[in-house]
Amino acid sequence: MNASPIKPFPIPVVAALGPGSQPEDEALDYLPMPQGMQTYRAPQLPEPEELAGHDGALGALRATLAALHDAVGGHPAAPVDLGGLTPRDRQLINQVLGEGEVSAQSLGAESVQVQESVFAGVWRVLRSADGCVASDTIEVGAIPEVLRRAACDDGRATGVGALPEVMPEGVMNVPSLLAEIDDQQRRWRRGQPPHIINMTLLPLTPQDIVVLDQQLGAGRVRVLSRGYGNCRITNTCVPNTWRVVYFNSQDAVILDTIEVCDMPEVACAAREDLADSAERLTEVLAWVETS
């Protein structure tokens, strides 16, 4: 009986095994790690001899500390007016407060610029009209009320509004998404937890995004919160409805959400933050007053 010819083995025989023995067709591509986290940094305080004659600045800082204690206790905190300070006093205020993680603006007939200090919940609020400064204040709280009011004023009574009778070609899921947003914003009341829609997980087409932007509109409030990467917050023209987009340290979108609330929590200072700021500002004032 003749032997059958040997057929080629379907899997190649490997003579050597182990790490480094096999060719690598593609290099591993890891996601970049977060970088550049913003953390509290103690302010660079002036030398003792530089503090002489700055009673106006010291008075404003004491008033800010008193406002912090009011806010921690759940009481309304009166703004601290810096309009009457000399340029040198204002420079000392700037040096002590520094710049924190959150900045914001509200544009309109009155332009409002907001910058959180290194003391969370302590905000510098600058109002201007026709190119002239109208007021310069320190405000203490979760977020300056001027931003809440501007967002509230932008909210139209019609809510999301009626969709076009004929939707553009390619629109798929935005009608149901808009219906959810409209229902949630009509039922939401201050004090309730936010309703968050994770757009990153939704199957939305580019045409869906266009219709969504058109129906929600864009308000006047812009907020930037910096930590690991950035969080950019904008209000819409639908009451209590915000676009909140998170970016990593390479400025790539990692989370895109719509929040139904009066103000997204990522922009706000918590009660614990206010208490911590009161302790830190107390230490700063103790150093200043004993110098």
Task: Provide a descriptive summary of the structure in words.
With 291 residues, this protein is of the alpha+beta class. It has helices at 55-72, 87-97, 145-154, 174-187, 206-216, 271-290; strands spanning 80-81, 102-106, 111-116, 122-129, 132-140, 195-198, 221-227, 229-235, 241-247, 253-260. A ten-stranded antiparallel sheet has the order 1-5-4-3-2-7-8-9-10-6. The longest helix has 20 residues, at 271-290. Residues 6-19 and 33-37 have low confidence and may be disordered.
Q: Estimate the strand proportion.
A: 15-25%
Over the alpha carbons, how many angstroms does the gyration radius reach? 28 Å
Structural class: alpha+beta
Order of strands side by side in the largest beta sheet? Answer: 1-5-4-3-2-7-8-9-10-6
- Total beta-strand segments: 10
